[in-house]
Structures are given as C-alpha cells and as structure tokens.
Amino acid sequence: MNCGKSVSNPIINRLPKYYRILCFLKKLGVRNICSKELGDEAGVSPSQIRSDFMCFGGEGLRGSGYNVNILINKISEFLGLNEVYNLAIIGAGNMGQALAKNRSLERKGFRVVGIFDTNDFIIGKKIGAIEIKSLDHLSEFVNQNHIDIAIITVSSTYAAEVINKVIEVGIKGIWNFSQVNVNVPADVVIENVYLSDSLMVLAHNLKNYKTASQFMP
Amino acid sequence: MNCGKSVSNPIINRLPKYYRILCFLKKLGVRNICSKELGDEAGVSPSQIRSDFMCFGGEGLRGSGYNVNILINKISEFLGLNEVYNLAIIGAGNMGQALAKNRSLERKGFRVVGIFDTNDFIIGKKIGAIEIKSLDHLSEFVNQNHIDIAIITVSSTYAAEVINKVIEVGIKGIWNFSQVNVNVPADVVIENVYLSDSLMVLAHNLKNYKTASQFMP
DNA sequence: TAGATTGTTAATCGATTAACAATC
DNA sequence: TAGATTGTTAATCGATTAACAATC
After folding, report:
1. I need a labelling partner for A197 at 20 to 30 A (CA). Which of A156, B74, B84, B131 fits?
2. If pLDDT is split at 50, 70 and 90, which confidence band does B212 have?
3. At how many degrees (to 10) do helices B46-53 and B9-27 cross?
4. How far apart are CA A114 and CA B148, in angstroms?
C-alpha cells in the first residue's frame, strides 16, 4: 500500500494538520474540498496540498477536488490511525495525570492501560479506572500487556534513566514530555514534545513583532 | 542588537534546542564546547551550528570553540528569555491545572498570574496560590495586570471563541493547546502545541519502522 | 610554531511553487 | 462543450553542507 520510496519529514509533519482540518470541516458538513480551499485553511499553497497528497495516491477528481471522507480515510491509514495503541504513562505527576484524564486521546485510539510512578505516597491510588503501579513492576506488566507507547512524564532529573528502562523492557515507541535529549536505538521511535521550546519560540516572536511594529505601525 | 535582516524559522526553531542542551551541559560542569561536540549532541552538523550562531554574532574563539556561559546568555537574549512574562491560563481543566502547577515555567521567567474558567463549580477554588476567576472578569483583570501570554486550555469546542475574546482584550501572545486552527491579526503571535499531531507522527513512525525492519533485520 | 576550530563563502541538496496538459 | 481542478514535471527558491582562509 506504501508507494515504495519513503515520504519526507516535512510532508509527514503536515499530514496531521490536514487531518485535523478535514475532520473539523467534516463536522461542519463539508463533503468536498479543492486544494485551493484546503490550502487557505492550512496556510500552504494549493500546489503543496496536491503534491503532498501524492504520497497516498492523490484520489482527487479533476474539475471538482477531493472527497473529504476519502481524504480522511487515506490520511488515517497512512499515519496508522486505524489501529489501537496501548499506552503506559511513566510519571503520575501533574502532566501524567492530565494526560491520563484526557478523553480525546482515547477517542483517537490511544488507550492508556497503565500508569507508573516511584512515589510510594501515590502508588495504589487510582486515576479514573487505573491504579498507579510501582515502576518496579513495569517489566512484569509489559510481559502481560502489549505496550506500544510509553509516555514519559517524569521530571527531567530521572528521565534519561526511565527512558533507558522503557527501552530495556522492549517498548518501541516513546512520547517524551521531559526536557532531556536522548538518542535511542534504531528500532525505537521517540517523539519529543519539549513544551518549553515552544514557549521560547513564542517569547522570541512576541519580542520581534513588538520591535517590528515600531517601524511599521 | 539584532543583526538587521530577520532570522529564518528553521534557525529560530533550533535555538531552544541548543539552549536546552547547553544548560544541561553547564550543570555537568562543561565550560567550553566546539561546534562538532554540540552538533553531535543536537543531531545537526558542525557547519550548521556555526552558521546558526551567526544570528547573534558567533562569539566563538578560533582554535578552542565557544564559552558555554556566553552562548547561553546570547541565546537567552536573542530569544527574549531575560524578561519576565505574565501568563493567564484560560481553562482550568486537566491540562490548565497541570500547567499552573508546573514550577519549571516559573523558573524560566514565565509567571502564571491568573487562571480563568466558565465552570461555576470550580470558580473560586484555588490552584496553588491563585484563585480561579470567571472568564467574564478577564477584561477587567487585563486592565489591572499586564498579561503577555494567554494559555488556551479550554476544550476545542470553545477554543475559537475564547481566542477571539483574548485578542479582543488586547493580549498579544497566545500559547494554544486546543485543536483549533485559527488565523490571528498581524500584531498577535500564536504558538500551537497540537499534542495529537505529535502523537500521530509517532504512530506513523512506529508503523513504518516496524515495516522497514522486516526488510533490514 | 603546529594544531585546532572558527567565520564565511560557494557548491550542493532538497523542498516548494509555477505551469500546464489531462480530464472530470 | 466550457469551466474547473487535478496530477505531474520543470523551474525556482531556500536551507544545508563542504571547504578553506583566518586566527586563536
């Protein structure tokens, strides 16, 4: 089903954006869309929309554009969103608990099945239906339940150590919310969120737009 | 202090990464680093490190590399991290509360001074030292306290509306955790986090590395 | 001085866009 | 048929890298 040669990172990073916008438009009742309209929504050129869509074979209709449902399905399939993923949250602090309670992950097929921590005061407590377990039991848990993705929400101090442990027990996907920058083996994929990086870019733009507006008011 | 011509987005997006790594190395006691070493840590080429650093004037020493402290200060200044920012959290749900409790933002100069919601059941309750206020009082609050950045942690259903309100009361920086995709006026800067986009990219890579490993085990 | 590494330019690489024939 | 919009190539644009003189 893959078109053979691999798809470039810039394209892969834009697909979730298209997916998000298309799902939103579908809710509004939009059945059909052309590259010009979707490009306007997404802030990219119509050419880019069309060329990006070639990674899953286009499927547009000359003269009238793309069927929204078909596009959503194609992107879904391409990104692997039709499968169900089992997640384990490592670190039941503020962020870990917030993600555990977030229903919208579940709706997209990302199902939290375990929550782990090292703090004896919270081990045994429940978040929703799930009991917080000791990190010492992670290995045992992974043997009994297939885990696709570990969410790292421990403090940066312990993050590197925890990530190594997660890799050691055989988990292949890591969604990292800590600040550490780790290199992982070739068969493991890691996606770093780095919230503070995003805030720094915001701070920079805030400063520079302010400065810019002094010259073009 | 700016070198005049504006710095490209790819560069601005890499600077927080360098900053993060340099702060980490500083803690380990590293005083000096050359472009080769930093590039290895950051996963970019030495040429790119050197050419990126030109946006704040280099400041390296031929033959021995860069002073870590000077680099941190230069990047700090360039990104606007030496200032203090006042933040207001809009939406005191799971994510809003997690961000409110997160001490590491405060340490970086991002100070949460207000939390707002529309749910009467939680208005009046406290998160840390801050009382949750009604969103109806945002305008009044902004008149009395300068707010640099609004953090949008309401559900996607209300996000577009809330973002418009935030812009209306004169806030110029928006850190958006909702799923909506909004266009803002030219004098407002928005930084979108889109957690689920990041998870979709992870899902895609997980699927593709799995497939790839069948051919090169 | 010899070795190391920067600052900077020119060459290369890859991503985006413009253009247009194909076709609904 | 005429109008619209895709699929796709060639041209353009911009970002990265290689190379090396400058210099610590």
Report:
1. B131
2. low
3. 100
4. 38
Checking each nucleotide's C1' against the CA of B59, the nearest proves to be C6
Query: Which residue in B has a C-alpha nearest to residue A92's C-alpha?
Result: B98
Closest CA to B179 of B156, B152, B202, B151: B156
Strand C bases contacted by the protein (CB, 7 Å): 3-9, 14-19, 22-24
Question: Which chain A residue's Cα is nearest to B76?
Answer: A200
Strand partners, B175: B151, B191
Q: Do B208 and A179 touch (CB under 8 A)?
A: no
How far apart are the C-alpha atoms of B143 and B152, rounded to whole Å?
Answer: 19
> Mean pLDDT across the stretch B73-87?
95
Q: Where residue A216 falls among pLDDT bands split at 50, 70, 90? A: very low
Distance of CA B117 to the CA centre of its chain: 22
CB-closest option in B105, B196, B201 to A108: B196
Contact A102 B95 (CB under 8 A): yes
Element (H, E) at A134: strand A130-134
State the pTM of this model: 0.93
Token match 């928006």: residue? B174
Compare CB distances from A203 to B80, B200, B210 and report the shortest one's residue: B80
- List residue ranges whose Cβ is under 7 angstroms from nucleic strand D: A 34-36, 46-47, 50-51, 53-54, 58-66; B 8-11, 44-45, 47-48, 50-51, 61-64
Partners of A192 in beta bridges: A176
**Tell me: the pLDDT tens digits for A151-191?**
999 999 999 999 999 999 999 999 999 999 998 998 999 99
The C-alpha atoms of residue A177 and residue A194 are separated, in whole angstroms, by 6
Find out whether B119 and B108 touch, Cβ atoms under 8 Å. no
**CA-only gyration radius of chain B, Å:** 21
Structure-model confidence comparison of residues B191 and A211, the more confident one: B191
Reference B175, options A19, A153, A204, A9; nearest CA is: A204
Rounded Cα distance between A90 and A163, Å, is 9
Binary contact (A83, B207; C-beta < 8 A): yes
| B148/A206 Cβ within 8 A | yes
Tell me: the pLDDT tens digits for B123-135? 999 999 999 999 9
DSSP labels, B116-165: EES-TTTTT-EETTEEEEEGGGHHHHHHHS---EEEE-S-HHHHHHHHHH
Nucleotide nearest residue A46, measured CA to C1': C17
The residue of chain B with its CA nearest to that of A43 is B183
